[in-house]
Amino acid sequence: MEIGDLKAKIFALLKEDEEFRYAVAGMLGLDEILRRLEKHDERFNEILSRLDSHDEKFNEILRRLDMHEAELVKLREDFNKLRLEQIKISEEQVRL
Fold first, then answer.
1. Is the pLDDT of residue 62 over 90?
2. What does R_g of the chain's alpha carbons equal in angstroms?
3. pLDDT tens column, 24-43
């Protein structure tokens, strides 16, 4: 049997014979590669889950930061109003 005939027969077997195809894939180490890829997929999904959790926490922190910023603005406005009232009272006391 010539090499060309052998190659054609092997290609035909790979195409038509599932058991032969898996045997060749196993010999080439593809099953190990697939197992490792599966492990990487699992780890990647774990990381994505953790990332989602961190996103939720981060968004909660941003929401709270916005609340604190709004409260700080309100406190600053109240402080300025009190300061103006104090200045008015001081000016009135000077006039008296």
1. yes
2. 37
3. 988 899 889 999 999 999 99
Could you tell me the two tokens for 31?
């099953």
Alpha-carbon 91 to chain mean position: 59
Judge whether 31 and 25 are in contact, CB under 8 Å.
yes
Q: What are the helix (H) ranges across 3-29? A: 3-16, 18-28
Sign of CA pseudo-dihedral 25, 28, 29, 30: negative
Q: Where are the domains of the chain?
A: 3-95
DSSP codes of every residue in 66-92: HHHHHHHHHHHHHHHHHHHHHHHHHHH
Residues 6+ apart with CB under 8 A from 20: 13, 14
Residue 51 · residue 44 · CB < 8 Å: no
